[in-house]
Design goal:
Layout (H helix, E strand, L loop, with lengths): L41 H4 L6 H12 L8 H7 L4 H14 L2 E7 L5 E7 L102 H12 L1 H4 L7 H16 L4 H9 L9 H11 L23 E3 L6 E3 L7 H8 L1
Antiparallel strand pairs: 1-2, 3-4
Helix pairs in contact: 2-4, 5-7, 7-9
């Protein structure tokens, strides 16, 4: 027994020996934990359907003590992710079975959310009262040992009484009164319910739209540039494709912009900025913008006011008969003298 076996190796080869290490991939340098650690299953850490944020959040929740607050705002204050991403990760864990959340009403009337973290997903009953290691089961009561009884003889008759015992007279029956009729409970009158209020459906606008602005002075070159600008809008936004009739109808409004020294780029920016997602009537939209966003004339320039028509002044004439003054384009008699002559 004390002879040394020289052919046996002193110890097994280490798995971390340089010759046993892989040439590619991850290499683990593990240290055994003796305190402050959490056991997590590979079904969670290597889950195929969960996102990396959901897996990390599940590991963090399982490492927290019982009673820790894991609301969305607390987690967003703890980690750099936003509340939207954390809420999405919690929904992933709830769908995968690693988290169960339920609404519970407290005795004081408040409604709180109870969250149960499961290290193994599956339909299990939440254990939120006391951990299993602390539950004390009541001890079974010790069996009470009965004293042995002697077997009774087969023929046993009761002992005879020396004197007869008088039997007490039966008590007279007590008359019972029939129960009174129940008092009818008055039925409360029904509460009148007001008829539902019908809100009229919105109708189309009945007021006529504002008139389209027109240039004060006619300029063929300016109107040609306005038509070209409207037809080129479809290159900036395909939703603003106009027909020839729409271009001809809207060209005077754009010409009014150009007449007020508005640059063509300014007109394009005003007509194509902040468009709705779906443009059903591009011509109506452009008409509204051309009318509502019409800029005023630049300061220092002559106001573009259309020339007012000259007043027509009828000259004064003297009646040839009564020498009374009256207005007429030609000399002659006044109205009264003409009436008397006709009579």
């Amino acid at each position: 027994m004390d002879t040394q076996q020289v052919n046996a190796r002193p110890r097994a080869a280490s798995r971390k020996a340089p010759e046993n290490r892989p040439t590619s991939g991850v290499i683990h340098d593990n240290t055994r934990h003796s305190a402050a650690f959490t056991v997590v299953g590979n079904h969670l850490s290597q889950h195929r359907a969960l996102s990396l944020l959901a897996i990390g959040l599940a590991v963090h929740i399982q490492s927290l003590p019982t009673g820790a607050r894991i609301g969305i705002k607390h987690l967003a204050a703890r980690f750099p992710e936003s509340e939207v991403r954390i809420a999405a990760a919690l929904r992933e864990l709830e769908a995968a079975g690693y988290l169960r959340r339920s609404r519970t009403r407290l005795p004081d009337g408040r409604v709180v959310t109870r969250t149960v973290s499961c290290n193994q997903p599956g339909p299990r009953t939440p254990e939120t009262a006391v951990p299993r290691s602390r539950v004390r089961r009541p001890a079974d009561p010790a069996p009470v040992r009965q004293p042995p009884t002697a077997p009774a003889p087969a023929d046993v008759s009761p002992p005879a009484e020396p004197f007869p015992v008088p039997t007490p007279p039966l008590a007279a029956p007590v008359p019972t009164t029939p129960p009174a009729d129940p008092v009818p409970v008055p039925v409360p009158a029904p509460i009148p319910v007001a008829p539902p209020v019908r809100v009229p459906t919105p109708t189309a606008r009945t007021a006529p739209p504002s008139p389209l602005p027109h240039p004060v002075r006619h300029d063929a070159e300016r109107e040609r540039l306005a038509s070209a600008l409207l037809g080129d809008l479809r290159r900036l936004s395909p939703q603003l494709a106009l027909s020839e009739a729409d271009v001809a109808a809207l060209a005077p409004g754009v010409a009014a912009w150009l007449e007020r020294d508005a640059h063509p780029d300014t007109v394009r920016h005003a007509l194509t900025t902040d468009l709705p997602a779906l443009v059903k009537h591009p011509a109506k939209l452009l008409r509204h913008r051309i009318t509502a966003l019409l800029p005023p004339p630049l300061p220092g320039t002559q106001e573009l006011v259309p020339p007012r028509p000259a007043r027509i002044v009828i000259p004064m004439q003297n009646c040839d008969r009564c020498d009374r003054a009256f207005r007429s384009r030609h000399p002659g008699h006044c109205r009264e003298c003409r009436s008397e002559a006709a009579a």
